[in-house]
Amino acid sequence: MGDAYTPGLTVTGSTTVHKTRRLPLPGTVLVKVGDRVSARDVVARTELPGRVHLINIANRLGVLPDELTPKLLVKPGAEVRQGELLAESKSFFGLFKSRVESPISGTLESVSSVTGQAVLREPPSPVEVRAYIDGLVVEELKDEGVIIETQAALIQGIFGLSGEVRAELVLAKGDESGVLDAEHFLPEYEGKVVVGRGHITLAGMRRAIELKLAAVVVGGFAYHDIKELIGYDIGVAITGTEALGTTLVVTEGFGDISMANATYELLKTFVGQEVSVTGATQIRAGVIRPEVVRCYREGEEAPSLDEEEVVEGLAVGAPVRCIRAPYFGRIGHVTELPVELQKMPSETMVRVLTVRFDEGGESVSVPRANVEVIER
Questions:
Q1: For residue 89, which phi and psi values (nearest 5 degrees)?
Q2: CA distance linking residue 186 with residue 182, whole number of Å
Q3: The pLDDT value given to residue 238
Q4: In the chain, what are the domain boundaries?
Q5: CA 316 vs CA 144, 310, 320, 326, 370: distances in Å
Q6: Percent of the chain, pLDDT > 90?
Q7: Could you read off the pLDDT of 209-258 as tens digits, one per residue?
Q8: How far is residue 40's CA from residue 145's CA, in Å, rounded to a whole number?
Q9: Other C-beta atoms within 10 Å of 318: how many?
């Protein structure tokens, strides 16, 4: 019999976090094992090759490719400026001239004597990888990057948008109704990570972007608003590269859902402190979670919270979140783990569990694969 995989969503005041910081191409690693780094430190650097442009100089001059070399005014490998003369052909005793100018600033990489084609390349683009978290470099990935270790509070979300930011955390004011709308975002939030207990509206998210907030961390967000916000369907693709300007982390699910009490209380303890946030998400193979990370300084103690008794793994009493319809995003605790397989409406036989939801106290039976354990 196969085992059902139940992914875990971590919400904890203290854990050891490892982050791999890797370049997209081989480059230079700027730190070494044993170095202490801060979140904004550049740990590795490389250059992405510039875009290639092709020009058939022979055709433009009206000469044969093997006649091209003496007509070149720039040697292959030399740098060129936009508008600079690359080649010139004279006819009728110099009365008529054909010229070819460079369409870009960059490098003339090569000119073929067979096709007459010239290859020009734009300047390379520098790429820097920052540490993202404060911590200790514990491993170097030769010419690629490093692995950084730190002790930190870790709050993982269920969905996010846009990339990594580092900023001060504040609480949104006036969201007691459970809804974060445009009116709840103030100019003073610019450059901050704003935490709201309720769900955020599309107008609220657009206002956050307009005010240039670093990030918004909320309980819920409407699924159909994602396309309105970014302009396309996300499907099952990886998120995190959206050019929103403001990172979004949804901790509970899609819809009118408030943040879990334990998550909100933990985030409250970090008001006024800097946190690292990313909205990168991948639900399928190689799960990637959006997250909020608060790194502890050496000797600093984690906040003391009134936490419920910890239950390891998928067991009776374990806190879980439903990750598929019709209970998507709802949170509760496991009350039963029947051994027998049960038939679903799809006629498949699966292992199930009984979960009692925190809101309303309703108990339902769901496939084990449809929930994830909330690790604390």
A1: -125, 135
A2: 9
A3: 81
A4: 8-21+151-295, 52-121, 319-375
A5: 44, 11, 10, 22, 16
A6: 60
A7: 999 999 999 999 988 899 899 988 876 568 888 999 999 999 988 888 88
A8: 15
A9: 23
CA distances from 340 to 1, 188, 337 (A): 12, 56, 9
- Cα→Cα distances 14→46, 266, 296, Å: 34, 10, 9
Spatial contact of 98 and 138, defined as CB atoms under 8 Å apart:
no
* Tens of pLDDT, residues 224-233: 899 899 988 8
Pairing of strands 8-22, 371-375: parallel
Q: Which two tokens stand for residue 314?
A: 């998928």
Q: Residue 188: left (phi > 0), alpha (psi -120 to 50), or beta?
A: alpha
* pLDDT beyond 50 at 127: yes
Question: How far apart are the C-alpha atoms of 257 and 250, rounded to whole Å?
Answer: 10
* Torsion angle of C-alpha atoms 200, 203, 206, 212, degrees rounded to 10: -70
Q: What's the whole-number mean pLDDT along residues 315-336? A: 82
Mean pLDDT, to the nearest integer, of 294-323?
73
Tokens of 53: 């442009």
pTM: 0.77
- Is the separation of the CB atoms in 370 and 320 below 8 Å? no
CATH number for the domain whose boundaries are 319-375: 2.30.30
Domain 8-21+151-295 architecture: 3-Layer(bba) Sandwich (3.50)
Pick the CATH number of 52-121 from 2.60.120, 2.40.50, 2.60.460, 2.40.10: 2.40.50
Strand partners, 89: 98
Would you state the pLDDT for residue 315? 84
